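Supplementary Methods, section 5.1.

A reviewer requested that the exact input to the structure prediction be made available. We therefore reproduce it here, unchanged from the version used in the analyses.
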Amino acid sequence: MAPAENDDPAAQGIVVRLDDVLADRGITLAELSRRVGVTVVNLSILKNGRAKAIRFSTLARICAALGCQPGDLIEYRNHA
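The structure derived from this sequence is encoded token-by-token as follows.
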């Protein structure tokens, strides 16, 4: 997935791998939405790397629902 596409220099190099984890688990975005209580629209914003922030409580619910660690969902790639 592409790096976050926002103008915040601090977010450059952050890659959201939610799509990959969902595919690995065979779970749709709609199913994840039901499991964690976050709208499909907000999860889509996160999945597409357009989110500017994520609450730790939301991240924890996503990790619990997918049986993964935060590092499975978000990584940093240095593009220097």
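The two ends are 18 Å apart (CA to CA). These observations are discussed further in the main text.
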